[in-house]
Amino acid sequence: MDIVTPDICDDHPEVQVVEPGFQNFGGIDAFGGEVVTVKCFEDNSVVKEQVGKPGNGCVMIVDGGGSKRAALLGDMLAEKAAANGWAGLIIYGCIRDVDVIRKTELGVQALGTHPRKTDKKGIGDLNVPVTFGGVTFKPGQYVYADNNGIVVSETKLG
Description:
Blueprint: H1 5-11, E1 16-17, E2 23-24, E3 31-39, H2 45-51, E4 59-63, E5 71-73, H3 75-83, E6 88-95, H4 98-101, E7 107-113, E8 125-126, E9 130-132, E10 135-137, E11 142-146, E12 149-153
Parallel strand pairs: 3-4, 4-6, 5-6, 6-7
Antiparallel strand pairs: 1-12, 2-7, 3-8, 3-11, 9-10, 11-12
Helix pairs in contact: 2-3
């Protein structure tokens, strides 16, 4: 399926649209898949754990509380996610190592960049509903993202 979010919105008016504000940073501009959620704040321990597991084409939705004080994803975790079959990550927060991530075969959208890494305290929740950008993301939904925006569907499209 070619992912073009304006076409998805035209063909499926029931989809939810995430409010603007995210930027594309990954080597893949258009990506989508089943939603896996992580809720964390300035601690990417759960993200690190999950990218080490098979992604099976899923998209990790990371609710970092919109923090712009540290990066929840860097080059090593992005490369691990790509190697383990994740389609992408959408991060309500920041990333770092963008020059390397732009060359990684992975979809990555985030609010911005920050050079500081997070503390690792082992704090975070996996597969809980998370809300940001005017949308509540739930495990098992499907998300599609490109340079036009991010949309969420209750069912797989295409």
